[in-house]
Design brief:
InterPro entries: ATP_synth_F0_asu, ATP_synth_F0_asu_AS, ATP_synth_F0_asu_bact/mt, F0_ATP_A_sf. This protein is mostly helical. Helices cover 69% and strands 2% of the residues. Helix 5 packs antiparallel against helix 8 and helix 8 packs antiparallel against helix 9.
Length: 227
């Protein structure tokens, strides 16, 4: 029983072929088809409005040098948002529940922000490792602590996204299993658990959107420190 609950997080295969690339490419079906007009229907209008809103939110704390990252950060936000929401549909697989994928996104982007700071303003970037006015005996310890906190950032990004989505999917499966099991024995209790399941599903939709936003927002804040 415990193993079956975690089977939903195992990488799906069909005839020995991994289906993760297919699930990663599936959000591209939501993109509008090429057309001579900018706005073709209400869906395209909604997508453009959402992309514009996300770009404004992410680029507000950044200066003009950071606006070069607008396309990358907005695309990453829409990509994670689409995958997280599509993963809530029945009989689907959520790639962002895999720590390996989230780390593959977090580490290169965090490293890019770090290298940007070291290239453009090396003194200021290295100055973050030692706060101003630090007593001399504490300098080695503080440098080690700040370096550790700097290196742990990509791990925190990946683990936060993985843990939140995994916990939500497990709760949904546990409560749905309880609802089906209690239906023939205690219909009233089953109806109550079904209501809880409905509320939890709404919460998970919010969590899927919030976690995608938090992932990209933290990357933009890391970028702000280095430009």
């Amino acid at each position: 029983m415990n193993l079956s609950f975690f089977d939903q997080f195992s990488s799906p295969y069909l005839l020995g072929i991994p289906l993760i690339p297919l699930s990663l490419l599936f959000p591209t079906l939501l993109l509008p088809s090429p057309n001579n007009r900018w706005v073709t229907n209400r869906l395209s209008t909604l997508q453009l409005w959402l992309a514009n809103l996300i770009t404004k939110q992410l680029m507000t704390p950044l200066n003009k040098a950071g606006h070069k990252w607008a396309l990358l950060l907005t695309s990453l936000m829409l990509f994670l948002l689409s995958i997280n929401l599509l993963g809530l549909l029945p009989y689907t697989f959520t790639p962002t529940t895999q720590l390996s994928m989230n780390m593959a996104l977090a580490v290169p982007l965090w490293l890019a922000t770090l290298l940007t700071g070291l290239r453009n303003q090396p003194s200021a970037s290295l100055g973050h490792l030692l706060p101003e006015g630090t007593p001399t005996p504490l300098i080695p310890a503080l440098i080690m602590i700040e370096t550790t906190s700097l290196l742990i950032r990509p791990l925190a990004l990946g683990v936060r996204l993985t843990a939140n989505l995994t916990a939500g999917h497990l709760l949904i499966q546990l409560i749905s299993t309880a609802t089906v099991t209690l239906l023939p024995m205690m219909p009233s209790i089953s109806a109550l658990t079904a209501l809880i399941l409905f509320l939890l599903t709404i919460l998970e939709v919010a969590v899927a959107m919030i976690q995608a936003y938090v992932f990209v927002l933290l990357l933009s804040l890391y970028l702000q420190e280095n430009i």
